[in-house]
Amino acid sequence: MNYELRLPLNNILGFLEQSSYDNSLTQEQKDNVYYIQKNSQHLLQLLNKNFYFSKLISGKISIQRNMVILENLVNSISRQFEEEVKRKKLKLNYYIEPEISRYIKIDETKLRTILVNLLDNSIKFTDQGMITIKLFCDNQAWLSDNNTDSLDQENLWIEIEDNGSGIAPDIQDKVFEPFFRVNKKQGFGLGLSITSQLINLMGGKIYLSSQLGRGTIIQFYLPFTIPKTEEIRTNNQHQTIVSLANNEPNYRILVIDEQQENRELLVDFLKPIGFNLKEASKLQSALDVSRTWQPHLIFVDIKMLLSENNQIVNEIKNLQTLNQITIVGIASGKLEESQREQLQIWCDDCLYKPFSMDLILEKINFYLGVSYLWNNEEVEMISTRKIVKSLNYTTLKMMSSQWLKEVYSAASSGNRSLLEELIQQIPERHDSIINSMRELVNNFNCRQIREIIEPLID
Q1: What's this model's pTM, rounded to 2 decimal places?
Q2: b/e map of 117-147 (b: 16 or more CB within 10 Å)?
Q3: Does the keyword Kinase apply (predicted)?
Q4: DSSP track, 250-276
């Protein structure tokens, strides 16, 4: 029966989505399509929840662990709610603790269902303000029960906080019961019950804290394992970067090599992804390009650095210091100890042939904090290490000691609004510092801000 209902409803939704892209529709017609679409999705959601609940109570659902990249999962879920969040003029932020392994093994389908149900609930009962998702690994002291997970397991803690209408104390114990509705006019009363049962099935537990008029915090933990290296390698073989992510800056990359075929290899690989490329066959021409074009990153043949005029190399290095250009050397063979020491002065990094093109993209991500689009899925790879690299003594020493102390104090107390005010005091010409600071604040990385600022305080 459930299948017979869902199949035609999915077809209706498919045609509605097509219609939403029809530019010939008037605004009134577009609004009508939107409301039909929204109500159809709501009906499908109720059918799916009813079907899922039936399977849960009959014991027909089992755990299927697979390899998950949390960044992918959380990013795709947040995009799923993008339109609704925009329509209600809310903010939806998420933060993933850097210490969490990039790859984990967990039941992705069930984790997605849990997050979608909880986010849907938060958005539904929040009319203004912010919804925040935080993911971090647990400290065993957090667990209120005597949890005896096996040694190869860790607990993933997820916290969803909103400043919505909140839940009255007398009904907080009932919200996870089947068919219980906080608001009698909304929902079917199954979303939170399914969520709670799924968390229990996966070996976790859920906690709720709420104040009327102040908002709600829901925390839960789920055990996960870290996959073996071989599993990660196999998983990576199925992923391909297709382009830069949407709204990425215009990254400029300079390739320096005497051999045309070597330059073409990098240029032909990087240009379709969306990078802006220039080439140089001599260090002097590379210096001229660097002065006028100011690349973000340079790939250079190490033989040229070691054999050509050291004065030119030093001038490029001076440009690097002034403009924060990253220089990555490319070597064809083994280097002497003295050569390696010299390259450490000139280059930020070095690649040794043969290397995979994926490594090139990893290096670009590491130093520039680039976000890529993978095949059918977007992965945001914001490099905290890259941000830390740009926020050092040299770049922050122009700020007053009072400013540094205020930033440290605001980061220690987690005062994001004050941090934003302090960031606005940075001179506009230092846009890279402003962007790096904002990146850390937006990702709730106050600990990292403290670690950067602490050595600079008198």
Answers
A1: 0.46
A2: bbbbbbbbbbeeeebbbbbbebeeeeeeeeb
A3: yes
A4: --EEEEE-S-HHHHHHHHHHHGGGT-E
**Separation of alpha carbons 332 and 5, rounded Å:** 62
Using CA atoms, how far residue 2 sits from 44, 56, 60, 422, in Å, is: 10, 15, 16, 55
Number of helices (H), then strands (E), in the chain? 19, 15
Which of these CATH numbers, 3.40.50.300, 3.40.50.1110, 3.30.565.10, 3.40.50.10300, describes 62-230? Answer: 3.30.565.10
Sorted by where each begins, the domain ranges of the chain are 1-60, 62-230, 239-379, 384-456
Predicted confidence (pLDDT) per residue in 187-225, tens digit: 444 568 788 888 988 999 999 988 888 889 999 999 998
Q: Which residues neighbour 417 within 8 Å (Cβ) at sequence distance 6 or greater?
A: none
- Residue pointed to by tokens 């690649």: 351
Q: At 455, is the secondary structure helix, strand, or coil?
A: helix
64: left (phi over 0), alpha (psi -120 to 50) or beta: beta
Residue 343: other Cβ atoms inside 10 A: 18
- Go through 150-184 and write b for each residue having 16 or more CB atoms within 10 A of its CB, e for each that does not: eeeebbbbbbbbbbbbbbeeeeeeebbeeeebbee
Q: How many CA atoms lie within 13 A of 443 on its CB side?
A: 22
Whether the Cβ atoms of residue 364 and residue 353 lie closer than 8 Å to each other: no
Of the options 3.40.50.300, 3.40.50.2300, 3.40.50.970, 1.10.10.10, the CATH number for the domain spanning 239-379: 3.40.50.2300
Q: Where are the beta strands (DSSP E) in 45-100?
A: 66-69, 90-96
β-strand partners of 216: 162, 210
Task: Identify the segments of the chain with pLDDT beneath 70.
Answer: 1-7, 10-11, 14, 17-18, 20-21, 42, 45-46, 48-53, 56-60, 98-99, 138-153, 178-191, 229-240, 308-310, 320-323, 333-334, 354-356, 374-395, 413-414, 442-447, 458
384 vs 369: CA distance, rounded Å: 8
The residue assigned the tokens 């400013």 is 403
How far is residue 247 from each of residues 73, 250, 372, measured CA to CA in Å? 20, 9, 11
- Hey, what are 86's tokens? 């925009």
Residue 389 contacts by C-beta under 8 Å, 6 or more apart in sequence? 367
The DSSP-derived string for 340-355 is HHHHHHH-SEEEESS-
Decide if 105 contacts 67 (C-beta within 8 A).
Answer: yes
